[in-house]
Amino acid sequence: MRRTKAIFKYMPVWIILAVGIVVTYILVMLVAVNRDELAKTSFDNTTNRLTDEISLHITDSMHALYHMSSFYHGSEHVTSEEFNQYVGGFISLYPEIHAVKWAPRILHSQRRDHEQQQSAYKQGYTITEKGKANAVIPASERDYYFPVTYLYPMKGSESAFGYDLASNMARKGMLEGAVYTNSISVSSRIRLTPEKDDSFAVLIALPIIAGGKIPLSLDSPNLQGFVLGVFRIKLIIDRNIEYIDFKKADIIISEHLDGGDGELLFHYHGLNQPIHPYVNSRVIKVANREWRVQIKGDPEQFGATALMDYLIMFMIGFGFTVILAAYIHLLCSSQQQARQISERLTHEMNERKKYEKRLIKSNSKLEILLREDPVMKIANRRAFNECLLNEWRRAQRSGFPLSLIIADIDNFKAFNDKYGHVVGDLCLREVAAVFSAIANRPSDMAARYGGEEIVVILSETFGDGAVTVAERIREAVAALCIPHEDSTTSSVVTISLGVTTIIEASDYSMNEIIKSADAALYLAKQQGKNRVVQAKLDKKKIAGSQQQNKTVINISTCL
Prior knowledge:
With 559 residues, this protein is an alpha+beta fold. The chain contains 15 helices and 19 strands.
């Protein structure tokens, strides 16, 4: 009898244990399958992002040579000292650039004068080429030469000084490709002394052309020469791996040819080879060449299920089952323990509610950030679109007027070029603060419309009031006295403003409101800037031109 009572007493516990084990097994199998699929998706997304970053960084690094193009186009003759000073200034921003070279086009008739002139920098200078066993010998006679005349940094690259690029068929072909396309051309791999066996560099050439006519060959008279850069692939990849935190992988970059992969350019070893690694392979365009980027990753790194994971998940599920069974036993055994458990659950619920409140508060802060422009610290384009839509609908219902101001900082591109983007951002923020301070009614909104354009929504405001507000803003911005030496309008930063007002919103679309204010802004720019121009939408003319889908704007006031 006692034995039977004991069996019935613990029957709920045994049932819970049996059901818990079965359910745990099913859940473990489902989770394992889903994790493997998610792991592969995560690997593909991560490696695609890494490949995109590598491609973007390579393109950005190569375009650094265009700094040198602008430098040469801006000067009739560049000395060695000017070359070294300029290159030394910007090469520090690109650690992957090993060296920058200048190879002018020298005719045979100019060779002697050129060698005598360069002897001032290197005694016994002569135009050279590679002979047998890679020995450096004087260049043989030819119609023209492309010797490396300037080189920065010189240390460690002395042997390249004076070397005629046209003496090597591969280098000459690269130069011809650059001239034919009038853009950057990339060489095949080259070996640098600091690099290891599985990492190489490439030579990148950019033609410098005098005049507007584009040459089609190396013997064209308007071809001045070539700016060349030696780029270390390893440093480009290392910066992206560090940025994305993807060090536990094998990264292989090689030339991509029509018949398959060509020479190896880079191989990063970071993977302890698993039995079945994930593989992602993509081809990226690098100027005139195509590179294949192949990445191999450990599935477990991206969340794929391993044997130990199965055991851990099963043990966790079984542990929860045992805990639940024990919990039920305790409930059945003691009312006092049940009350204690109930109090504990109540405490946990209270903590959860506190956490939910904090989460709601954090979400509110995040929503504010999503609606605020990070530079100007005023509403962004998204918030403006929502506000204009709401105010336009409200004006339709109420019949009250709705005014819109679009402003643009005069000659702001020249300001950025003169003082830099950091000072430009500070200027944008100060100007935006003026708009927020003047358009300060609860229903008003100042927002960044794009670039240096700022818009102001003035609900329930007639045209004269909107013009007054715009003029106050214009005067306040000028009163900031922000210096602007390159402005064609004033010695300080000024703005131009376009104003429009609609009386019956139901007769106009939001696009017509914006176009009207934008047209007034355009007229303010044409009339000399630093002024306010008001535009009024002509309701009757709009009704007569709706069939032609045109908006009729009547510029009625110019301040």
